[in-house]
Design a protein that fits this description.
The protein is mainly alpha-helical and 1424 residues long. Helix content is 74%, strand content 0%. The longest helix has 27 residues. The protein starts with a helix and ends with a helix.
């Protein structure tokens, strides 16, 4: 085996030959023999390096370095290896370079040492990042182990540190921005929180502060050192802001403060450091600051905001620091004034204010932009000295907010600063808008006293608050405690003496105040003129109250002299003006001078409440409500009126009440409500405020609230002293107005009468009473209370004759008269009750007076008709009475136009009202005359045109013009409606009128659209639904029209003639078109509507005729006969006068209907006579102008049938049959007439007549196979004849009709079942008929289970199923009564009676007492 030495030699040879595998093999062999052989490890590492086995090579080198640490060979190999790794092994490279440099240093090979370091730094700069370069530079810094060897061979440490600082600054700034940009996009992230989090993270690892300190320590350049001192301060301050509250933040704050203080000590003019050093101080008193540092700050930074505040404060009287010599200050001031720039081109100089105005301006400018706790504190002290409490109040709010921000930023407590700010704020709150903020101020003072019980300012503040709260004992206690700590404070002493005066101890207070006055006026003492004026006034106040006699108070050498002295000391001292005003008003009788004093007092101080009240009352007496409002608002804004919560002091309500009255006069009701409510919260028993609140609610339309307020006022009338309340009639008057607006007219009228009893000549009340009477009449008219409406209209006219003469020249007076007259034109049945004599006395009888000349050439209306008396026949008096009413209304409106000549708006409304009165007169004329353009219509158009000329922007005037021109000139009407809708597109009545115009012109789509818009604008406008009904009729949908008419009448007023007329007609048409019986409920509303129409228009024959037909349908034939007889007589009289074919037609129809009613009551002779006359009048076929073909056919059919039935009932069957034959012939085989004829023929008993009856029925069935009555009659005839063949054919028809679902009424189904059961009961041959009565009843229930007749018959047949069938019949009947079905009362009564129970029998009697079924069942039940 070769020796180790030989192997090493072989390895060296292989190395030279670059046989790296051999080298590795030999080296490993040597290591196996001697693991600690250093050279073998070196050979192995070198060979592995050449083979690019870098990691194994590194391990071998490291092993070699451990075997011989001071041998450079292995370290050099490592360095070469690491260089090949690039940036990956840069940390290991640095260590290896350092170790190799130390080895060279130790052997004193300095060049090699430097070369190793330089190569590594170059490698880090070129291959690594910026941080690697910074770390590499550490090798040549004083902290490096090899620095002693490299010193002088490398750059100075300051330069290297500066390089590091620049790199670190840039990298940290970039890293902060990058991290913020990445994290701010996270959900829920806030930029402020993210910024602080990132900065804390970066600053936690930062070495920038250390680098800054090393630069400062090693730099020989003072400028560079100062620069990096500033950077270090800014950096530490940034770290401070980033840390959360805790020990770390406290350490950072201490470091920042030390750095700043050091800069101030060396007087380095870095503003940021000076701001920190000055502002972060927290002294209990301003004296704690170093005045030298403050003055130095002003010299260094004269243009800063804080400098302005400091300089202003230091030169003021309030400054606790010694002043500079006056000569120097004056010299500086002059220098500032005379020179702008120095020789160097203008360095900043310090400006020293000379006057107080300059000082205040300078400090105000400074504090406006200052961001300094010291600035706020100095300014607060100065404002408090100047007693600028409002400014200090706002400033200290800002200061406390800034303090909170600084505390959060720096972590410093600033407790003394906070107490100072709280004292300044509390003091300002005591005086600013006193006592609004007293609770807040007391809370601030209590907090300070809890920390510092000896705080003089806090004691004074609490004492002043107790003084304002009228707790004088507590106030004296606190002020005396403050006086013990500041015995020379004259302000505290005078305040303590004043509180004694307020407590009532005027003598002691006067002596102490006199002593204060003497001390204030001592020679040589700087006089505080404000305090002197206040003390002199208070001394006068004591003198005023010590001797309250009139002589003493009137003495000008007494209290009066002190008040004057106070004004001499301070011309702007408001309380002295108030006291002088009281003196002049109450004792010198100089009202003018008193008002000037009060006005001056209020101008100077809104807290002078007594002066303000007297001044407001003075203005109110003059009716100057704008000034009253101004004075009251100043007092409210002062904060004196409302005591703070928990205060014993009473509030002052009169400013709010005065504001309410002033706002009422401006008709600003919502503001007035707020003001009166505020007054009542302070004085709940203020009668006048309740009245004002009620009036305000009334003006704003809140009538229920107004009622409650006025009732509260009336409640106080019985509680409060009448001398303080004054007159109470106005409350009743306003309450009556409220009741009137609520529609409670009866109560309103009672209240108006009560007021009129006490004040019979009160014009406004008289007018209001007339309006209430008229409105009550109109309301009663709409509600259908026609008698009440007429009664109130008459009362209005009666009162008008007794009303004060002054109101006869007012617009509302004549309008009320006209409206009262128009009530009679609506309720024409009461026109005979029209008080024509009273109206004549109001209107006069002279047609020539100017009032009646308005449009007299057009309408021709004069007083002549009203003066006719009994000049006309009785049958014409109805028209004469109506003419009197209409013309009286027209004349009254003309009087309204005359009295409103000076008011354009009132005159426009008067013309508008006259136009409607003229149009009303036109509408009341006969229909034949209305077809033409009457004089009334022309006058109406002229009136509306004149109204539009006076007020073109009124939509109602245009609408009225459109109405009156609809038939005369549709183009003008359309334009007028369009203009009205342009002015007010929400006018439902205008849309309705436009729709009516469309109907008149036949434009159905336009009409439909207009009525739809009217419904949208106002769903409760009945005429819109009425017009929609007309549209439906024109489109052929009678059912839809009837529904619309029904809805219209449900929402319409009772005075609506058109709605009731057309509804009644539509219902009658529906009943006439239906062959089945209708429920009685269907007749009720039309009858009620017609009753209203007859009251409104008793002479209209259409309404009366229609009412008679309805009475006929409900079997009230007696009333129908009465109505028709009266109607026939009236029509006959009219025909004799006019000989109109239309009248003759109406007479013929009425006679036909009268004949039918005579027949119903058994007056057969009268029926025959009336029918004969109807036939005679309708016999002329050529007179097409009288009756149309259809009308003639129906009339003659009815007359023939009536005559035939009457003859039959008179036992004149022979005469009856020709009547029916003629009826059948003229009606072209009317099936119902045929059925009646066949019944009459069968009743004669003659075979030829019976055969004729069969022929007639077969003819009917041949024409109308589904005619149920004809089939039934044939069935009965076949059954009676025993004709099985005919019966079989009839049975098939009966069964088919019985099984049909439509076309057969319930009543007819009952008849079908009855005939079928009759056939079954007669036991006809089974070949013809199968089944008995029970089976037929069961078939009825199966085919029509919803009808009660089958169940009733099944129950009547008895048996096991009888009882259950009776119950089912009752249930079905209950579901078939109106409105669910058409079942009548008799059928329901029979269903109840069918159960056999006593209770049900009684119910049957109750439902239909005229039907015997209930009585029979009750009798059977009782007897059993």
């Amino acid at each position: 085996m070769a020796s180790v030495k030989a192997l090493l030699k072989a390895a060296a040879d292989a190395t030279r030959q670059q046989k790296w595998d051999t080298v590795i093999e030999i080296a490993n062999e040597v290591i196996q023999k001697d693991a600690n052989n250093h050279q073998s490890h070196v050979f192995l590492a070198f060979a592995l390096d050449k083979k690019n086995n870098l990691d194994e090579s590194e391990a071998a080198y490291l092993t070699a370095t451990t075997l011989k640490p001071n041998d450079p060979q292995a370290w050099q190999g490592l360095i070469k290896l690491y260089q090949r790794h690039g940036v990956k092994k840069i940390k290991q490279y640095q260590y290896a370079a350092l170790r190799l440099a130390e080895i060279f240093r130790d052997v004193n090979e300095m060049f090699k040492c430097q070369d190793v370091v330089d190569k590594f730094i170059d490698h880090a700069r070129s291959q690594g990042d910026r941080q690697h370069y910074v770390d590499a530079l550490d090798l040549i810094l004083p902290e490096s182990p090899i620095y002693s060897a490299l010193e002088g061979r490398v750059p100075a440490p300051a330069k290297t540190y500066e390089t590091q600082a620049q790199i670190i600054e840039t990298d940290e700034k970039k890293r902060i921005n990058t991290l913020i940009g990445e994290r701010r996009t996270r959900i829920g992230a806030r930029i402020a929180d993210v910024t602080l989090e990132v900065k804390r993270e970066v600053y936690h690892k930062s070495r920038l502060g250390y680098v800054y300190r090393q630069i400062i320590d090693w730099s020989s350049d003072d400028e560079l050192r100062r620069t990096y001192e500033e950077k270090l301060l800014q950096y530490c301050h940034d770290r401070l802001l980033a840390w959360p509250p805790g020990e770390q933040k406290d350490r950072e704050a201490a470091l920042v403060r030390k750095l700043a203080d050091d800069m101030v000590i060396i007087k380095h003019p870095y503003k940021f450091a000076w701001d920190i050093a000055i502002n972060w101080q927290d002294h209990k008193d301003i004296r704690g600051w170093d005045v030298t540092a403050l003055r130095q700050y002003c010299l260094f930074f004269p243009d800063s905001d804080l400098s302005r505040v400091i300089m202003g404060f230091l030169t003021s009287f309030v400054s606790p620091f010694p002043k500079l010599e006056k000569e120097k200050a004056a010299k500086k001031a002059r220098t500032e004034d005379e020179s702008e720039d120095d020789e160097e081109g203008g360095a900043a100089t310090t400006y020293v204010p000379v006057t107080e105005e300059d000082r205040l301006l300078m400090m105000t400018e400074g504090i406006s932009g200052a961001d300094s706790l010291l600035a706020f504190r100095l300014m607060g002290e100065y404002y408090q000295f100047l007693e600028e409490h409002e400014s200090n109040f706002e400033l200290m709010r800002r200061a406390l907010d800034h303090l909170k921000e600084e505390r959060a930023r720096t972590g410093l407590e600033f407790r003394s600063t906070e107490d100072a700010f709280s004292l300044y704020l509390g003091t300002s709150l005591v005086f600013y808008q006193s006592p609004r903020h007293h609770q807040e101020a007391k809370g601030l003072f209590d907090g300070i006293l809890a920390r510092d019980p000896a705080s003089t300012s806090a004691l004074i503040g609490v004492g002043l608050i107790f003084e304002e709260e009228e707790e004088y004992g507590e106030a004296i206690s606190f002020l005396e405690r403050a006086l013990e700590r500041a015995p020379d404070n004259l302000r505290v002493r005078s305040e303590a003496a004043w509180v004694k005066a307020l407590e009532g101890n005027f003598q002691d207070s006067a002596s102490e105040l006199a002593r204060c006055v003497s001390q204030l006026t001592e020679k040589g003492q700087s006089i505080n003129r404000e305090l002197l004026a206040q003390t002199q006034y208070r001394l006068g106040y004591c003198a005023w109250h010590i001797d309250t006699s009139r002589t003493a108070r009137k003495n000008r050498s007494g209290a009066y002299s002190y008040f004057l002295e106070a004004l001499k000391s301070n011309l702007n001292y408001a309380p002295a003006y108030t006291s002088l005003g009281i003196y002049y008003a109450d004792y010198a009788n100089d009202k003018k001078r008193a008002r000037k004093c009060f006005q001056k007092a209020v101008e100077l101080s809104p807290s002078e409440v007594e002066a303000a009240e007297r001044l407001a009352r003075s203005f109110a007496d003059d009716g100057d409500w704008d000034r009253v409002e101004l004075v009251a608002q100043r007092v409210v804004d002062s904060g004196k009126v409302k005591p703070p919560p928990g205060s014993k002091r009473k509030g002052i309500s009169w400013p709010f009440a005065a504001l309410g009255v002033a706002e009422l006069n401006k008709q600003d009701y919502h503001k007035a409500i707020v003001s009166f409510q505020a007054a009542l919260r302070i004085s709940p028993n203020d009668y006048h405020s309740w009245v004002g609140l009620g009036e305000s609610y009334y003006g704003s339309g809140m009538y229920m609230a107004a009622t409650k307020a006025l009732l509260n006022a009336q409640r106080l009338e019985g509680v409060e002293d009448s001398s303080t309340i004054g007159e109470t009639w106005f409350t009743n008057f306003i309450l009556a107005d409220v009741k009137r607006e609520l529609g409670e007219f009866d109560e309103a009228i009672i209240l108006y009468h009560q007021v009129m009893k006490g004040r019979p000549r009160e014009e406004g009340v008289a007018i209001a009473l007339m309006q209430a009477l008229v409105e009550n009449a109109m309301d009663s008219l709409d509600k259908g209370l026609f008698g009440k409406a007429v009664d109130h209209a008459k009362k209005t006219l009666t009162f008008a004759t007794e009303a004060p003469a002054a109101i006869t020249s007012t617009f509302n007076f004549w309008k009320a008269i006209a409206d009262a007259c128009s009530v009679f034109s609506h309720i024409q049945g009461c026109t005979p009750d029209f008080p024509a004599d009273q109206v004549r006395s109001l209107l006069g009888e002279d047609d020539g007076i100017p009032e009646y000349q308005v449009l007299s050439d057009i309408d021709g209306v004069g007083t002549g008709v009203g003066s006719t008396g009994g000049m006309f026949p009785a049958d014409e008096m109805c028209a004469v009475d109506l003419t009197k009413v209409l013309q009286a209304a027209i004349l009254a409106h003309k009087r309204a136009i005359h009295v409103s000549a000076n008011d354009a708006h009132a005159q426009a409304v008067a013309y508008y009202n006259l136009g409607w009165a003229e149009y009303r007169a036109h509408g009341c004329m006969p229909r034949e005359i209305r077809k033409k353009s009457t004089r009334y219509l022309k006058a109406a158009m002229a009136c509306f045109k004149r109204a539009i000329e006076l007020e073109a922007g009124n939509s109602e005037f245009w609408n009225a013009l459109g109405v009156v021109t609809s038939e005369v000139n549709p183009t003008v009407a359309q334009h007028s409606f369009a203009r009205s809708l342009y002015l007010n597109e929400r006018g439902a009545h205008v849309w309705g009128n436009l729709g009516t115009l469309g109907l008149i012109q036949g434009d159905i789509p336009i009409a439909n659209e207009a009525f739809t818009k009217a419904q949208s604008a106002d769903p409760d406008y009945s005429h819109a639904w009425l017009g929609q009904g007309f549209v439906a009729l024109l489109l052929g949908d009678a059912k839809e029209a009837r529904g619309l008419f029904t809805h219209a009448i449900e929402i319409a007023e009772n005075s609506s003639v058109a709605t009731r007329r057309h509804y009644s007609v539509s219902v009658f048409d529906h009943i006439s078109a239906s062959f089945s019986d209708q429920p009685i409920t269907l007749y009720l509303q039309p009858l009620l509507a017609l009753a209203k129409l007859q009251a409104l228009q008793p002479h209209d024959p259409t309404h009366r005729h229609l009412a008679a037909l309805f009475h006929e349908r409900i079997h009230d034939s007696t009333r129908s006969i009465t109505t028709l007889e009266e109607l026939c007589a009236a029509i006959e009289a009219n025909y004799e006068t006019t000989e109109s074919p239309e009248t003759l037609k109406r007479f013929a129809i009425a006679k036909s209907d009268l004949a039918r009613s005579y027949l119903a009551v058994g007056s057969f002779d009268k029926a025959i006579k009336a029918a004969e006359l109807a036939l005679q009048l309708s016999s002329d076929n050529s007179s097409e102008s009288e009756l149309t073909g259809e009308e003639r056919r129906k009339l003659r059919l009815s007359a023939h049938v009536i005559m035939g039935l009457a003859q039959h009932h008179n036992k004149n069957t022979g005469d009856a049959i020709p009547c029916f034959e003629t009826a059948l012939q003229e009606s072209d085989g009317n099936p119902y007439a045929a059925c009646v004829l066949s019944q009459i023929l069968w009743a004669t008993g003659r075979e030829e007549n019976r055969e004729r009856a069969r022929e007639v029925l077969f003819e009917v069935i041949e024409k109308t196979p589904q005619h149920v009555q004809s089939v039934l009659l044939l069935g009965v005839i076949a059954l009676l004849d025993g004709d099985e063949e005919s019966l079989e054919a009839v049975l098939q028809e009966l069964q088919a009709l019985r099984a049909s679902e439509g076309g057969v009424s319930p009543e007819e189904q009952s008849h079908l079942g009855e005939v079928m059961r009759a056939i079954a009961a007669l036991d006809v041959d089974a070949a013809v008929y199968e089944g008995g009565s029970v089976s037929q009843a069961q078939t009825d229930t199966m085919l029509h289970p919803e009808l009660p007749h089958g169940w009733s018959e099944l129950a009547a047949l008895g048996g096991a199923e009888g009882k259950g069938a009776a119950e089912m019949a009752l249930r079905v009947a209950l579901k078939s009564i109106p409105p669910r079905g058409p079942l009548g009362a008799e059928d329901l009564a029979r269903a109840y009676a069918g159960t056999g129970r006593v209770a049900d029998a009684q119910t049957a009697i109750l439902i239909a007492p005229w039907d015997g079924c209930g009585w029979a069942t009750l009798s059977e039940a009782v007897n059993s």
